[in-house]
Design goal:
Distance between the termini: 53 Å
Order of helices and strands: HH
Number of helices: 2
Shape: elongated
Radius of gyration: 16 Å
Helix content: 25-40%
Structural class: mainly alpha
Number of strands: 0
Largest sheet: none
Number of domains: 1
Strand content: under 5%
């Protein structure tokens, strides 16, 4: 059985940012030597999230608008 672990680290420019990691994940899987199995992607921080969906601008914009309507994280 072959396994491989890799970590991606991001420094964002804004408080909330969407980053498409598809190409980076594909490169990691290709370089891993693993030919069959699953790729587990996990956000290792409480304020991070993985969103699996199409790379579609309208969908991303709608999600951002929805988040903008939530109560602020820090009142004031």
């Amino acid at each position: 059985m072959t396994s491989h672990t890799a970590y991606l680290t991001f420094t964002t420019k804004t408080r909330r940012e969407l980053i498409n990691v598809t190409e980076r994940l594909a490169a990691i899987v290709a370089a891993s030597g693993v030919r069959e199995g699953l790729c587990l992607v996990s956000a290792m921080h409480i304020t991070a999230a993985i969103w699996v969906n199409d790379e579609e601008d309208g969908l991303k914009h709608g999600g951002q608008e929805w988040l903008d309507g939530l109560p602020p994280a820090r009142p004031g």
